[in-house]
What we know:
Blueprint (H helix, E strand, L loop, with lengths): L37 H22 L1 H11 L4 E4 L4 E3 L6 H27 L5 H25 L5 H8 L5 E2 L12 H17 L8 E5 L5 E5 L27
Antiparallel strand pairs: 1-2, 1-3, 4-5
Amino acid sequence: MTAPLTPPHQPSPHDPWQKPQKGGGPAGSHLWPLPEAPGAKDLRTDLRRAGIVCAAVTVAGVGLGLLWLWLAPRVPLISDSTAVFLSDSEGEEAIGADGTFALLALAFGAVSAVLAFLFHRRGGVPVVVGLALGGVLGSLLAWQLGTRLGPTDDVVAHARAVGKGVIFDAPLELRAKGALLAWSLAAMAVHLGLTAMFGPRDPEPEWGVYHGPEGAPVYGDAPSPGTGPSGGPAAGPSPEPPAPPSGS
């Protein structure tokens, strides 16, 4: 009678219900982490760049607000100590303020798209989303900054302070709220055009010249092994006929 190969206090290495040992596999080796997929790394890089673009565009809204405050036409008001009236009832200063904001936002959108394209020439959806979101946030920041730094919105107190018959400026307002989207629309349009004209191209298939069955040159994609010029199976040498059986 022979002794068992495996001691009773040690489980068989071929037991399927055996618990794994500490440190990894059956020999105690450590488990190494699987390599990260290239797509996940590229996505994280694109998201980080999109966040940088969004933050930079939002901060640029401070410049838009200051320019709007400086260039927007003022609406003149006058008081007769009982009410406040427009000094020029036929003036278009209110519309001019909205148009100035829209034109400045379009210019800021074009410039931010060019800078974003130079920053990340490959383009991508995250960068465009960062441009669009940053354009909206920057426009909101510019709107609030211009209205708060402009003339006071307490028209009655302002009229009492300047006195009767004195012309003063109305508060700066943005009546056309659609102008808040001008920055984002201009940025996306310009970035799309730059990507279409100067973005990286997909590699084109290589074309070459090879000789057909009769030796004539044929232009097109190089045929894969085992195929003929027309894409069908290549014509190989015809098999030799079998030799006739020898007579007995």
